[in-house]
């Protein structure tokens, strides 16, 4: 049960505490933020609305805790991360329960997210020991005009205080994907979880607390991003921001000072279907890729670009599969569950109505009950329709018919987004050429887009992001290079 057993100390009455200086605390603000259950549309949890003074204190503590953490041996940092990973997986049930109630994640997917997060933390611990345990040694005479009178030793050192801001759809996994790399690299970590998903995140933070990390090294501030977010992201004590979410990230990037940014933002992942595709494989991936977690994934298939000659057959196959999806509450493990908020459902409905007004073919009747929207495939979508370009973040998928692969590539590249894309064909040469041409961070060949497995590089181009995630790239991005040059009185070639 959430907030019980070893988690009893993280709640006070019916309001969850925030985490600072190794303790669970009530905010001096006296205010709280309600967390609305997307299924019932009632308040399910409450979290503290932290004050700016509390943010200042947390960042000061993070700065001093980081100094001693940077002097903690790599193997000790890794040991604590492995402990946190084990505790996280041990408590998968109560944390998954929070995901079901806060973000309407289907029960099985909720457990998967927590287990995947534990695996990410452990893999990161091992990878960190490897890549941070080695540096580079350069000699001066490898450059013209120099004798071997200089030895250059380079290593990766921490940035300082890393601010992690994950989105609602993976409030545990996309939090640890920032926390673990930051900590193994010797940084301290301030987490601002999404409002919806905050309680799952607080339970995850408690697992790190139970693992025994030093006081003040890791903290978790709760409160609406729209209220406390700007103060956090523009705070002079923050040395790096790792953000995952929507257009908010673009605004943050424009305001941030001279610090490293890791941005994973929205997507409009295109799925190009060629005439020689395996249409059963393509249909299965379109349904899984476009409708898992009700389409609320940045890597969801968000537009299908299918060759006219096979379009009717493909659409029929997708329709048949969509008809088998279960629709209802996440507690029953339904495939399609309510979207995150009423405003999100209204936005999705706006895109659907625009498509209707402009003449799209509705493969199913449009149906909505509260935040619950039934899966909808829109055929014969044209570029003048909003849904051809905008990100619904819901269970609605547009199909555009194309007459050449170039047409599909052009549509994909005309988007402001550039996260992932996919192409279905039996011709590997064609697949590689199309992958080369698509301006996206990743192209999947004969499978739907996906961030996982979590050690793969994951990056967005254009408005989809800055930098690259994936465990190794995240660790490297949360360090900076330090060189130490030893100057010798006379050339020395004894080093061979
Ligand atoms: N590329 C990727 O990997 C992913 C991209 N996304 C994209 O994010 C969107 C949906 O996720 P969603 O969570 O709604 O995204 P948002 O951008 O609304 O929120 C993301 C995070 O930013 C916080 N936030 C909001 N305002 C500010 C601010 N001014 N300063 C600092 N932080 C702030 C939010 O907190 P709060 O909840 O309190 O508002 C949340 O923790 C979609 O566009 C989706 O494509 C989502 C997941 C992954
Ligand atoms: O933000 C998202 O939606 C996730 O990055 C998607 O992760 P997944 O492709 O592994 O579900």
TrEMBL record:
Which parts of the chain span the membrane according to its record? none
Tell me which UniProt keywords the record has, alphabetically.
Answer: Cytoplasm, NADP, Oxidoreductase
EC annotation?
1.2.1.9
Instruction: Please report the stretch or stretches of sequence annotated as the Aldehyde dehydrogenase domain.
Output: 24-483
GO CC, sorted alphabetically, is:
cytoplasm
A Pfam family for this UniProt protein? Aldedh
Question: Can you tell me which residues form the catalytic site?
Answer: 264
Mention one GO molecular function: glyceraldehyde-3-phosphate dehydrogenase (NADP+) (non-phosphorylating) activity
Localization per record: Cytoplasm
Aminoacyl-tRNA synthetase as UniProt keyword: no
Going by the entry's taxonomy, the superkingdom of the source organism is recorded as Eukaryota
List the catalytic activities from the record: D-glyceraldehyde 3-phosphate + NADP(+) + H2O = (2R)-3-phosphoglycerate + NADPH + 2 H(+)
| Family recorded in the similarity comment | Belongs to the aldehyde dehydrogenase family.
Q: What is this protein called?
A: NADP-dependent glyceraldehyde-3-phosphate dehydrogenase
Which species is this record about?
A: Rhamnella rubrinervis
């Amino acid at each position: 049960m959430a907030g019980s057993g070893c988690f009893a100390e993280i709640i006070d009455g019916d309001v969850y505490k925030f985490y600072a200086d190794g303790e669970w605390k009530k905010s001096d603000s006296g205010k709280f933020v309600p967390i609305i259950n997307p299924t019932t549309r009632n308040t399910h949890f409450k979290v503290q609305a932290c004050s700016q003074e509390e943010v200042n204190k947390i960042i000061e503590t993070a700065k001093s805790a980081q100094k001693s953490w940077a002097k903690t041996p790599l193997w000790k940092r890794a040991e604590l991360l492995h402990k946190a990973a084990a505790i996280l997986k041990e408590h998968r049930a109560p944390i998954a329960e929070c995901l079901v109630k806060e973000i309407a994640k289907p029960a099985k997917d909720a457990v998967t997210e927590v287990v995947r997060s534990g695996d990410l933390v452990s893999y990161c611990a091992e990878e960190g020991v490897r890549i941070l345990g080695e540096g580079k040694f350069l000699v001066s005479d490898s450059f013209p005009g120099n004798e071997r009178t200089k030895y250059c030793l380079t290593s990766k050192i921490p940035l300082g205080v890393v601010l992690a801001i994950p989105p609602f759809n993976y409030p545990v996994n996309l939090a640890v994907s920032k926390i673990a790399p930051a900590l193994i690299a010797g940084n301290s970590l301030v987490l601002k979880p999404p409002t919806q998903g905050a309680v799952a995140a607080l339970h995850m933070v408690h697992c790190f607390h139970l693992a025994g990390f030093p006081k003040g090294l890791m903290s978790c501030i709760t409160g609406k991003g729209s209220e406390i977010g700007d103060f956090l992201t523009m705070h002079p004590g923050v040395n790096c921001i790792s953000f995952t979410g929507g257009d908010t990230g673009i605004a943050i990037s424009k305001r941030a000072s001279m610090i490293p940014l890791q941005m994973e933002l929205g997507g409009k992942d295109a799925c190009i279907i060629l005439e020689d595709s395996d249409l059963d494989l393509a249909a299965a991936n379109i349904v899984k890729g476009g409708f898992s977690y009700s389409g609320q994934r940045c890597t969801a298939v968000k537009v299908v670009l299918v060759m006219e000659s096979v379009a009717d057959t493909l659409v029929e196959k997708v329709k048949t599969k969509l008809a088998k999806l279960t629709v209802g509450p996440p507690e029953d493990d339904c495939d399609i569950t309510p979207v995150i908020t009423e405003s999100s459902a209204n936005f999705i409905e706006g895109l659907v109505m625009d498509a209707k007004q402009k003449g799209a073919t509705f493969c199913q009747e449009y149906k909505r009950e509260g935040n619950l929207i039934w899966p909808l495939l829109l055929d014969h979508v044209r570029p003048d329709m909003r849904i051809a370009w905008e990100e619904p973040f819901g269970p609605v998928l547009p199909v555009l018919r194309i007459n050449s692969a170039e047409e599909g590539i052009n549509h994909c590249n005309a988007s402001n987004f550039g996260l992932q894309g996919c192409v279905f064909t039996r011709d590997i040469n064609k697949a590689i050429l199309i992958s080369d041409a698509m301006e996206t961070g990743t192209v999947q060949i004969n499978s739907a887009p996906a961030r996982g497995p979590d050690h793969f590089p994951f990056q967005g181009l254009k408005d989809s992001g800055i930098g690259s995630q994936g465990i190794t790239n995240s660790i490297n991005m949360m360090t900076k290079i330090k060189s130490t040059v030893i100057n010798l009185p006379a050339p020395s070639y004894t080093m061979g």
